[in-house]
Design brief:
Blueprint lengths: L7 E4 L1 H10 L6 H14 L4 E5 H11 L3 H11 L5 E5 L12 H14 L1 E6 L6 H12 L6 E6 L8 H12 L6 E6 L6 H12 L7 E5 L6 H8 L6 E4 L13 H10 L8 H18 L13 H4 L3 H13 L6 H14 L9 H15 L8 H8 L11 H8 L2 H7 L7 H8 L5 H9 L2 H10 L11 H11 L6 E6 L2 E6 L5
Parallel strand pairs: 1-8, 2-3, 3-4, 4-5, 5-6, 6-7, 7-8
Antiparallel strand pairs: 9-10
């Protein structure tokens, strides 16, 4: 038995790797279930499995019941805890949900097989984080991790994060803490100061690290953090690692060994998992994660790749492509005026859209989108830093601000049951409360989640699907060594 210091890996392939590289739309339940038994053997501390946003994607894109997906995955991975990332009092919609709705959502997640929860407030509002954790703990959950969401600004220094780590550590319901770096901004140099500063306030509670490879820093920051006492690193299987996702598990594993740090990972099972996702990506035409170049400008605007692409497209449509640098400079200014929000959804959209309108209209804050007004009203939470007074006054003085401030919030369960029918199952009720009815109807009509997925036969199945759409095709016959398929039309053409 090894006596080397031990560190865990937490797998992000099915959730954050998929989201970062494939827009959260790349995986169906069948694809997940096919490889789930292998993942269960690898030895991960847990699997970053889903969020309410991912559950919505399952309904919207794949017409699959997300509750069923959790149940099936839990049965297929009995030895590895499935985790759920929540932003607190929100479920799918960014509208603040009624406490009764969130209690029910958390209860259903637990009943269907979620055993671990990550609680993140995008503004680092620790009282809000703790309040959500208490709701989850009331459902019998003991494995709850509170998030410290990392960014770079004049106010987000080591002392800022250490103070908030102390708040989380004082909450009995929070078992561990993780430093979540959604922008991939954590440098190796900053790692050497911030990790000890946070750990000093945790009262012995474990600290995990989650970062992205957006500008190629995460791999190096992980290796600085590992000897400093972090308990776990968040990684993805090779094909869904790197790029905008987390570091690849294989390379992190090899480097941890060089540092003399032991893990419980089975390298053969991990290799089998990666081979599966590599074949899946090829069969489905999905991109593999690739290392990205370092970009020093990114620290200034911190605009995620998806939103940056949207800004480029909008400027091109207006024949103003040359103004991108001007828009990014305005992004910096707007972010400062709005209290340095962390540039993740929806705040990257809030800041980016306002900056775009300021530049293209020729007058700053001449037009203010509803989402910016909602942000200023505090409907997305409490900013870490107050808004610039003159900007806050200008936004809240708009007539539209008064309208949005008086809009009713999400109703409680009694009203939802009246609206959708007292006999509606709780799982469906939650979805109908926050999603378009036609999407939930389509999910129900599609029936149970499909089982079985084989990447090697996917190209053949795609061919059959396309040929079946043609009215002039009466017979389909495909033969290759070890495989024969023949279909005949029953409808006269």
């Amino acid at each position: 038995m090894s006596t080397s210091p031990h560190i865990d890996l937490i797998d992000t392939t099915l959730r954050d790797g998929n989201q970062s590289l494939w827009g959260a739309t790349g995986l169906t339940s069948a694809m997940i279930l096919e490889i789930a038994p292998v993942i269960d053997r690898i030895g991960f501390r847990s699997v970053d499995f889903t969020t309410s946003t991912h559950m919505a994607v399952a309904v919207r894109w794949h017409r699959e019941n997300p509750w069923e997906r959790i149940r099936l995955a839990r049965a297929a991975m009995p030895d590895t805890p499935l985790s759920f990332l929540t932003t607190g009092m929100r479920f799918i919609s960014w509208e603040v949900a009624h406490e009764e709705v969130m209690r029910l959502a958390y209860r259903l997640l637990v009943e269907n097989g979620i055993r671990r929860f990550y609680v993140m407030d995008p503004m680092n509002d620790m009282p809000a984080t703790i309040a959500a954790a208490q709701l989850i703990a009331a459902e019998g959950v003991t494995d709850i991790t509170g998030a410290l969401v990392y960014t770079v600004s004049p106010v987000h220094d080591d002392a800022f994060y250490a103070a908030r780590a102390g708040e989380l550590a004082a909450a009995p319901c929070i078992k561990s803490v993780y430093l979540k770096d959604p922008g991939g901004l954590l440098t190796p140099e900053r790692t050497r100061t911030i990790i000890p500063a946070i750990r000093a306030q945790l009262r012995g509670k474990p600290l995990e690290l989650h970062s992205h490879c957006t500008i190629g820093l995460a791999q190096f920051s992980y290796l600085e953090a590992a000897p400093l006492g972090v308990s776990a690193l968040h990684t993805s299987a090779g094909p869904l690692g790197n790029g905008a996702a987390q570091p690849a598990a294989e390379s992190i594993l090899a480097n941890l060994r060089e540092l003399g740090l032991a893990t419980q990972i089975d390298p053969e099972a991990l290799a089998k998992m990666s081979a599966y996702f590599r074949a899946l990506a090829q069969a489905e035409g999905l991109p593999l994660g690739q290392p990205l170049d370092y970009d020093a400008r990114y620290f200034r605007h911190q605009m995620p790749g998806g939103m940056l692409g949207t800004l480029r497209r909008q400027l091109k449509e207006m024949r103003q492509e040359a103004r991108l640098a001007e828009v990014l400079e305005e992004v910096e200014r707007v972010r400062a005026e709005l209290g340095y929000p962390i540039m993740v959804t929806p705040f990257s959209q809030v800041v980016g859209t306002q900056a775009f309108m300021n530049v293209t209209s020729g007058k700053r804050y001449a037009n203010v989108p509803d989402e910016v007004i909602r942000y200023a009203l505090g409907l997305f939470g409490k900013p870490s830093v107050p808004l610039a007074p003159e900007i806050e006054e200008r936004i809240l003085g708009l007539p539209r601000a008064q309208e949005l401030a008086t809009q009713p919030g999400m109703p409680g369960l009694a009203e939802l049951r009246r609206r959708f029918g007292a006999g509606s199952a709780d799982e469906e009720l939650i979805l109908r409360a926050v999603m378009p009815a036609e999407q939930v109807d389509a999910m129900r009509a599609a029936g149970p989640c499909q089982r079985g997925y084989n990447p090697s036969t996917r190209p053949v199945m795609k061919l059959v699907e396309e040929l079946a759409k043609r009215r002039d095709v009466k017979q389909i016959k495909i033969e290759k060594p070890g495989f024969k398929l023949e279909l005949r039309s029953r409808v006269a053409h």
